[in-house]
Amino acid sequence: MPAPDAPWGAPVRIAPPGVANERNALAAFLDYHRATLLTKCAGLDGEQLARQSCPPSTLSLLGLLRHLSDVERSWLRRTLDGQVAPPLFHTTDQNRDDQFDHVDPDGAAEVLAAYRAEVTSSREIAARHELTETVTTRRGEVVSVRWILLHLIEEYSRHNGHADLLREAIDGVRGE
Fold first, then answer.
1. Could you tell me the pTM of the whole model?
2. Of the residues 124, 126, 142, 172, which has the maximum number of CB atoms within 10 A of its CB?
3. 34-171: which CATH number, 2.60.40.3710, 3.90.550.10, 3.90.1210.10, 1.20.120.450?
């Protein structure tokens, strides 16, 4: 049962289909990983979400939500769609991982809202582009929409492993 002040419950995770066209398979795997992250956060209050369970690392579940909000925003809004959209949580070039530092437990609901808005925007932007379209990154690399979606799946996969360990350290919950 979620804590009384928990900002959300577990989302429904839909397993990616065993057979699908490439576009649908990529979207399904990405959505599955997005839902996995939210499942790891479900039922926790702001203090638990902000807990940095593996010192000296500043990694927390709330920090992961902040980081992945900025990752979605960077790749889809800025890189693919060309929008002027500054990061939401990344504030300095001197510290690449500042989304994980100084998280505010009282701001958990706002972080969740920002995350959900970025995911919604990302889905809409990705749907408007062909997988073979290419864009140039701020580092000057040419990448396809397919590459961006695969990179997001990789990013979520890696961080969902972190989320597994963080959640278990918070309250012993294990599993998918």
1. 0.92
2. 126
3. 1.20.120.450
